[in-house]
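Subject: mismatched residue count in predicted assembly?

I count 741 residues in my input, but I want to confirm that the predicted structure covers every chain. Input:
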Amino acid sequence: MKDIREDIAWAKINQDVMKSLENPRKIYWVILFFAVLMFAVGIGCEVYQYQVGMGVANLDNPHVWGLYIATFIFWIGMSHSGTLLSAILHLMHADWRKPIYRFAEAMTTFSLMTAGLFVMVHLGRLWQFYYAVPYPNERWVWPNFQSPLLWDAMAIFTYLSSSVLFLFVGMIPDLAIARDNLQSGWRKKLYTLLALGWEGTDRQWRNFRVTYLTIACFLIPLAVSVHSIVASDFGMSQQPGWHVTSFPPYFVAGALYSGCAAIITLFIILRYVFKFEEYMTLPILKKIVRLTFAIAMVWTYLNCVEFASVWYSHDGVSKDLLIQKMTGPYAPFWWAMIFCGSVVPFVFAIKRFQTHIPVLFATSLLLNLGMWLERWMIVAPTFSHGYYPWTWDHDQWPSMIQWGIVFGSFGWFTLLFMVFCKVFPSVSMYEVKEMVYHRTLHLKKNEIGETAEQGAH
Amino acid sequence: MTATNLLENWASVRHFHPIDDKPHDPYKWAMAIDLDACTGCNACAVACYAENNLPVVGREKFLHGQSMHWMRIERYWEEDGREFPDQGFQFLPMMCQQCEAAPCETVCPVGATNHTQDGLNSQIYNRCIGSRYCSANCPFKVRYFNWYDYPTTENVWPAEMNRQLNPDVTVRGKGVMEKCTFCVQRLRAAEVTAKGEGRIVREGEVQTACQQACPASAISFGNLVDPESRVHKQWLTQQVDLDKDKQDKDQKEGGSDLRGYRILEELRPYPSVMYLERVRESAV
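Triage response: the counts match. Full output below for your records.
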């Protein structure tokens, strides 16, 4: 199993990463094409829904929320692992994160942007969405600060702007490298603008480190709070199946879980498409796989906590709902969620599969399917088996419009992500150099130690 | 527009809880529905459609669960082993319960649904952005969303029937939430008339459309604060209070003669509608 070579030249790192901006494999264009196609489907569905009304989504009373909210939580969740990799592991000095955190951070930003779209798509009067923003107006009308949905809007906006900033700041030295390696063209102009006149002086590096660390420290509580607040959308309501105290940690664990699984998927795709085999090495993949497995077990544990607390709570309605989830019309999806979320990750526990790329690719997709189902199983069954018996026999299946927009969101995300990787260096050049430097330093120390020992003999 | 606006005590503008809330003065609109008298004839629902300009969505959308009946008659079959023609069932007229501590109000991101001075749960159509959080949090599921642009595109009122629309009630566009208002247009008109004459609205002066249409007089409606009102007397007789979360009739061992209760009151939304339990075995 090959790790990053210690003797790799810094110039070669620059060269390799810069090459990814120019000639990815042909499949890049295929992926891009399908992403645009998927996005177009989503746009078409949204235009239709905007014109005709939310009814075309086949929502009804009592099923007023559907796939939009479920997929919204899914995308918010996806965004968490970028922060985990870039901020938390940065503070913990985990060197192995260095070649992969850039794309994880981009994933954070783009999945947040996708989640934001779902808030919009979900609104009955999309054109009045700004009512939910506390903007100054002549009538002194404020939004309702008691509503978790408002906290949500604020938390997401804060998180999005901070992660864009974090992504950008962390990229400045690399943008300077890109700028210096290009002769002319729009790219040169873009990098010159974005590199903010970076020259790599001592003073700049010192300021850079402090800034980066500050934003990292700022981002961690934000990441935890943002998904806790999404959880309070449900936890703060009165409905059975939602009114659960353990929801915030459960949501955060689920978020890290789906995010890590997504990182594995994207790792494998990027590694192949942009020929990063030498940087995104299998030992790194193995570390993420183990991390994902650990988080999967935390998620499973929190699931059990939730079921147990519902089961022993003597809250008849919640208990009925849990039984309905297991046996009612949603049962196939509910059991698929349990299977994909808690059973499939055991593949990661098998050492042979920890670096087996086809298996990992399939497994990571299954995990995310499970996590998407989890969000749907949080949202939907509460509506079909809530407090009020009159609502119990109303079945509702999402229309093709809903599925189309969910489908389109994956295209939108892929589109943003793929364009980003083509325009910006998706492997952090300066941090890989640091990593290599640290390793050689370590090796040299060992060599010195060995020679010293030999000399003593 | 100043920052002090943000620091204001918001509790002072919002009615919270009937227990440590300021008393309703001079009005608290409330209802009592006698399930023993209800025959399930649906006249109330029809009257509501006529009074409040409710769109008639048609068979297909009804089957999709997209109908707009603010007032609905629910039917619950008795499961005692008997087959259809002999099987009994019970009716329950259901509309917005105008809760005192309404779960829908706190969750609306834009504050489009609020409590009024006279104890109604109001809905501001112009402010609503259609997040549908209110409906998600409503225990009774009595909020109805405009899934389509009914008045202009769905042709819910044929052109020749436009003149039967009630001019006192606005027609709602697509993407907003609506629900029973206790016929607020009638209440406001009566309140304004009474105020002009320097008095409060008398018992019997104002009726809701459903109450007016009910052939069995199962629905009574009025000012709960007014000791002369029928609703006040009914609530008093049944020992039902706004701030109770369980009823005396359920506390007494071996049953009681009391029949009054409010639906899902253990969740403490403190609804303004009292139901009187059915004593007869079955509705039919």
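Strands of chain B lie at 29-34, 72-77, 89-94, 113-115, 121-123, 144-145, 177-178, 219-223, 260-261, 273-276. Marking this ticket as 'not a bug'.
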